[in-house]
Specification:
Serine Threonine Protein Phosphatase 5, Tetratricopeptide repeat; globular
């Protein structure tokens, strides 16, 4: 019928359909779509692979589990995805930051407020650092501290 592997054009299209189903909160149809995608990819939906192309699929699976009320499995999957991204991506990479934010949200739903607060605190510090770096890049005088102090 069609090829479903990480490199095919079909996988991103079905993933996009999955995001639409998630936004529409058609959780049971999304669960069916995800199950079939994992089957076709010969991948276990509980254990993310190191393939970066498949991590968005696992993000969507974790989000769907949370929406279906399977919160503990959702937290476990979000945590695995975040750990993979934490070891493979830079601290400021948008995918890693988004993954960290999703995990914090899952912690909140699961009642793990302390863990969520720690993650959100780290995210806030990273955001402040990124904003400071951005301001320095925008201000050409920032490379001359003695000049910018006198203005």
């Amino acid at each position: 019928m069609f090829s479903l592997d990480p490199a095919s054009t079909t996988t991103p299209i079905l993933l996009k359909c999955g995001y639409f189903l998630s936004q529409m909160r058609d959780d049971t149809i999304l669960a069916t779509l995800l199950e079939r995608m994992f089957d076709e990819l010969h991948t276990d939906s509980r254990y993310p692979s190191e393939l970066m192309e498949l991590l968005p699929l696992y993000d969507l699976q974790a989000r769907n589990l949370r929406q279906l009320g399977v919160v503990k499995a959702s937290v476990a999957l979000f945590k695995k995805v975040f750990n993979i991204r934490a070891t493979t991506l830079d601290e400021n990479h948008p995918d890693r930051l988004a993954s960290q934010h999703e995990l914090a949200g899952a912690y909140i739903v699961n009642g793990q407020i302390t863990e969520a607060a720690e993650l959100l605190g780290r995210l806030q510090r990273i955001q402040v650092n990124l904003l400071d770096q951005s301001k320095k890049k925008q201000n050409p005088l920032s490379q001359y501290p003695w000049l910018s102090q006198s203005i």
